[in-house]
Design a protein that fits this description.
By secondary structure, the chain is of the alpha/beta class. It has a single domain, classed as TIM Barrel, CATH 3.20.20.140. The chain contains nine helices and eight strands. An eight-stranded parallel beta sheet has the order 1-2-3-4-5-6-7-8. Helix 1 links the parallel strand 1 and strand 2. Helix 8 packs across helix 9. The mean pLDDT is 96. It binds nickel (II) ion.
């Protein structure tokens, strides 16, 4: 079976060592992962980790909740590193609105521009903010390759993003029984537009909900998609890994 590709994780935030997490992921059939920075320090850390392992890549950027400061020149310098496959995560978060929406929007627009300038993919975080995220993506013009990370929304939200050229990245919530809208979206929308992620150490899938998450558990997300779409898990692994490689511009 094709190995899984965890398109979004933050193993440096977990208590367990990064090395243990990466090794357990390999054993669990996860062949590739993108380690995502949320500010300048963690973006540097993501690159350092990526340099240690084959199949491990980095994303550099400023999370909306960290966008009080926007060291865009330093992020641009980091983006030139060959292990960097994406800019982000960036976007709008109205769930935790500790940074003003104006500052979040400024940071989001700057990182959309940086993704286009560098030719890297863009990782978009949108929480309780679909109208705002869509408005900004449309007004800037989305980059060629981008992903809605931890997609949580209705089938119509998903269709809107796919129309803009997005991949939808599914995470642990797709395994929760209390997320019927999201399961409808997975059922109705094409697998060709989907990738999988853990967002670890957050969002552990069922039956580990509430416990620290790690990249090894991304298969549980893929298996939930397979169950909802009534296809074999190997089909989900093959398609989402191919999608992830295309998203991040990685040669197979
Ligand atoms: Ni994240």
């Amino acid at each position: 079976m094709t190995a899984w590709f965890d398109t979004h994780c933050h193993p440096y935030m977990a208590k367990n060592s990064v090395a243990e997490q990466v090794e357990r992921a390999l054993v669990a059939g996860v062949g590739e992962m993108v380690i995502v920075g949320v500010d300048l320090d963690t973006s540097e850390e993501a690159i350092e980790i990526a340099c240690l392992y084959e199949g491990v890549y980095a994303a550099v950027g400023v999370h909306p909740n960290e966008s009080e400061d926007l060291p865009i020149e330093a992020i641009r310098d980091l983006a030139a590193h060959p292990k960097v496959v994406a800019i982000g995560e960036t976007g709008i978060d109205l769930y935790r609105d500790r940074v003003s929406i104006d500052k979040q929007e400024t940071a989001f627009r700057a990182q959309i521009a940086l993704a286009k300038e560098t030719g890297k993919a863009l990782i978009v975080h949108g929480r309780d903010a679909h109208p705002e995220v869509k408005r900004i993506l449309k007004s800037e013009g989305p980059p060629d390759r981008f992903v809605m990370h931890c997609f949580l929304g209705t089938p119509d939200d998903g269709r809107d993003y796919i129309e803009l050229g997005a991949y939808l990245s599914l995470a642990g919530p797709v395994t929760f029984t209390n997320a019927p809208e999201l399961r409808d979206a997975v059922s109705e929308l094409p697998l060709e537009s989907m990738v999988v992620e853990t967002d670890s150490p957050f969002l552990s899938p069922h039956p580990f909900r509430g416990k620290p998450n790690e990249p090894a558990r991304v298969a549980l997300v893929g298996e939930a998609i397979a169950h909802i779409k009534r296809v074999d898990a190997s089909v989900v692994a093959e398609t989402t890994t191919a999608n992830a490689r295309h998203l991040f511009g990685i040669e197979p």
